[in-house]
Amino acid sequence: MLWKLSGSIIAGVALALAAGASVGLAADPSPMDSELRAIESEWARITYQVPNADDQEKQMEALAAAAARVADRHPGRAEPLIWEGVIASSEAKYAGSFSALGFAKQARAIFEKAGRIDYRAVDGAVPTSLGALYYMVPGFPIAFGNDAKARQYLEQGVQISPDGLDSNFFYGDFLYHAGDYGKAAAVLKHALAAPADRDRPVWDAGRRAEIRALLAKVDGKLASER
């Protein structure tokens, strides 16, 4: 499908990943938790609050280097790898079509590595992120996109995080593009029913706005079918 070729669509993967990748800090956070919370906060600031695309690109590039250093300091942990994958996906937003696919392939490899360590880490961010990649990139012979794999991964993500904003948003988006508007509407409404995340207000507000915008498209499709 041609919609998959859009660099902005590929970049949308990052929105899911970061949203799902909350580090879940304990009362007395470990050094790794603190580092990841800083990465997470900076990602949300760049994504939702930096208006200039050139500034976003430069700051996301610097954040990618910081995330890689965190991953290097904590080998054998899935959480830093997940954030490294999130940011690699984000960098696709600023790249041309060929480079965007390169970032998508890089992100897939990172998420697969994280999954081999802990597939269920950070509320199922691995299957949700892989599912998003598989339905957003083109299929063979251009890239690795595969709707059957996407559905499998996304449904696993929802099983792990049944009330998650990200797991439901990306599953709902997949269903929308697959033409299953009734189920997409139900999934997206379920996502909006989740309690607000007061620890991550920038991300929470941004993700809910995206869900509402997608739900409006779904409702429009349903109305046209009546």
Q: Using the CA coordinates, give the radius of gyration.
A: 16 Å
Major sheet summary line:
none
Domains, number: 1
Average pLDDT, rounded to a whole number, is 87
What structural class should be given to the helix and strand makeup? mainly alpha
Provide the succession of SSEs.
HHHHHHHHHH
Label the overall shape. globular
Specify the number of helices. 10
The fraction of residues in strands falls at under 5%
Q: Look at the structure and give the CATH class.
A: Mainly Alpha
Query: How many DSSP-defined strands?
Result: 0
CATH architecture: Alpha Horseshoe
- What name is given to the CATH topology? Serine Threonine Protein Phosphatase 5, Tetratricopeptide repeat
Q: What are the low-pLDDT stretches, counting only 5+ consecutive residues below 50?
A: 1-16, 23-27
Work out the helicity level. Answer: over 70%
Task: State the end-to-end distance.
Answer: 26 Å
